[in-house]
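ARCHIVE RECORD
Type: protein–small molecule complex
Small molecule: FE2/S2 (inorganic) cluster
Source of inputs: curated submission
Record status: active
Notes field left blank by submitter.
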Amino acid sequence: MDKVQVKICVGTTCYVMGAADLQELERFLPDDLKDKVEISGSPCLGLCRDENYGSAPFVTVNGEAIANADVNSIIETIRKKLT
Ligand code: FES
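STRUCTURE (tokenized, with ligand):
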């Protein structure tokens, strides 16, 4: 099975709004998810300029954007992609 692709925006807005802490995401993944997820950084995803998308930090999980991303919302979305 393909890994779930998690892209953490490291553009300036997201970075200052909390994406800096999300760089540690891998450490917080539950053991059963660790080998099913590929985490990478991304330049500005362009979402911080679109007010329909809520607020930074933004992360995408298999292309689905999460606003106000935190470790819990990311893990929840990863689990949805795996079901
Ligand atoms: S800086 Fe993250 S979407 Fe623009």
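CURATOR ANNOTATION: The helical segments are 12-22, 25-28, 71-82.
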